[in-house]
Write a structure and sequence with these properties.
Glutaredoxin; 13% strand; 2 domains; globular
Length: 146
């Protein structure tokens, strides 16, 4: 998980700039805890949102096949039912959980202490990570305006 790796590398800088880092995920508490351990995350609160309420509130959308499975076999891009059924079987057989909503695109936000969004970064595709300089600048902006 490339974003988790980057978060480990960037976390101290975010904290130094005065940020409180929070992750919101679709899963349940148990899976959130497993995720934190598996990817060796720093001490970050992981909130769970199985009903996608936060995703909806922040305007995170479901992506199109071209955004989610652009590098996958063509059957996935066509949303071929049998291909996804086989993927689900393969994941179960390998002991890997199914994802909750695989079409939901992630986002990253900087929110100041007054609750005002200072940066809204919605991914265009799954690995569309924001440049950490943009996040740092937004964190600084949020702290200057307090």
């Amino acid at each position: 998980m490339d974003r988790a790796k980057r978060l480990r590398e960037e976390y101290d800088r975010y904290i130094e700039e005065g940020a409180t880092v929070v992750i919101i995920g679709q899963g349940d508490h148990e899976r959130a805890a497993e995720y934190a351990v598996k990817y060796e995350l720093p001490p970050i609160d992981i909130l769970v949102d199985p009903h996608e309420s936060a995703y909806e509130s922040y305007g995170l959308l479901e992506g199109k096949p071209s955004q989610i499975v652009f590098d996958a076999p063509e059957a996935f891009q066509r949303r071929d039912y049998d291909a996804f059924k086989q993927l689900a079987k393969d994941r179960r057989d390998a002991g890997r959980p199914l994802v909750d909503n695989p079409w939901l695109l992630p986002g990253e936000f900087v929110i100041d202490q007054a609750g005002i969004l200072r940066l809204t970064y919605r991914y265009n595709y799954c690995e569309d990570f924001p440049d950490n300089r943009v996040l740092i600048a937004a964190i600084r902006e949020a702290s200057w305006l307090i």
